[in-house]
Amino acid sequence: MDSWLNGWWSNHTASMSANSKGFAGAFGEWAMGNPDWSCRDDGSTSACDFNLCDDRVLNDKGNEIRQAYYTIESVNKLHSYFTGLYQSFQVASIGAALSKDSWATTFYRDKDVKSATVLREVLNALTSVIGIAAAFGGLGGAGVAAASGGLAALFTGAAGVATPLIGQHEKRSQDDTFQKSADLGGILGTIFLEAMKGFTSANNVLMHGDDFQGTGDIRTYLKGGMFLDFGGVDKVKLIDTMNAFLIGQAVNQLYRTQKIFVMGGGACGDADGVIGHGPQDQSVCRDGKAWYLYYWQENDVPSTTAHQWGWTAAPPGSEQLGTGLYAGVTVQDIISSSLDAYNVARFSYDASTASARAQDALTNGWANPGSHGASWEGVFTIPVCDVGWAASSDMERKQYILQGHDHDARPNWCGPVCTGDLETTREFIRAANMQGFRSPKVLCEGDPGY
């Protein structure tokens, strides 16, 4: 269909220019004898309807009947995609969990109340989230690889719609503080309502035959038969995916202000205890290696006992993940997403990296980020430390590197604990907000160097 449509386009530029409806009108007239076939989103419920039973105009197209029909069907379904996306973004439940006054304190516990710039950082990531949602909503009958060009266009176009809207709200959030984080849900709702207008514009621009946001004209979106077997936007799944990404991004920003980290790399189960034992209920076993989620909680009362050095515990609010309002995000998502982000950019995975990686995944067809939910790389960027190497080392107190979640659990890191490299360990310490924090090395005989 791609080459055929390109040929038709080249031969009918004059008729497209002459028809006020542009491409859709010209094609409708040529294929069905209907010059008013606009497929515009203008309030009409029949602008993209067609009935090809005994259509004399179409039946006279000879060898071109099949390609003409495929094009009509694809254009109609692209129109239904934008309608479904518009309707999905109307749903009030998007971001609802982030509208509650208590959501931020659920995932934040620190002895010093800080000014956590949650709003601004989540807004930085929102461009990619909206783009990912648009691409996910468009994944119908075609596989990711087959539809890669169209999916990438959906991502870029939707991100282009969102960027100026987000910029307006970022300017209003310069005084963003931890206490104002409950405003996030309301701001997201406003952005989504404004984005709906952009989706209407996208539909109308493409149906006219014009370029949209530098992504190309309608042929880019129909490439590879992407919408030929499109069954419609699964609105429930799209909304659930959006919420998972948004909640994940928000929780990640709060966790990144605390002493929360992922550590592991040893054998799954840690049965031998060579580098200690991690908390099995907050772990992921991947490629034969175990990874654990930790929060080093500082003691918040005067103490002369070992508790003065704090202890490792489950991160604040992690017990609520996977249930209720936070059902779309799990501890395992946090670990897996953070591992993938670390493998891509170590401790430097940011909003621009997230956008570039999502674009690459869709362009080259190796993944549709939305189908991964909150486990997609970079939704979480919790600092990662690979201590698996220590099992065969002679590092001091290596049997206490990994500990459980317990009031008496205090890991000992008496060397370059992360990959055996001192600079990597220092980067990890900084990323995990543990600069100047003595607790992991207080029992070490020598200075670990970090």
Detail the poorly predicted runs: 141-147
Note the overall shape: elongated
Structural class: alpha+beta
The whole-number mean of residue pLDDT values reads 85
Helix content: 40-55%
Sheet bearing the most strands, described? 5 strands, mixed
Strand content: 5-15%
Describe this structure in words.
The structure is a single chain. The protein is α+β, with helices and mostly antiparallel strands and 450 residues long. The chain is 43% helix and 6% strand. The protein has 14 helices and 5 strands. Strand 2 and strand 3 (289-297) form a beta hairpin. Helix 5 (65-88) crosses helix 11 and helix 8 (148-172) runs antiparallel to helix 13. The protein is elongated, with a radius of gyration of 26 Å. The model is unreliable at 141-147 (pLDDT under 50).
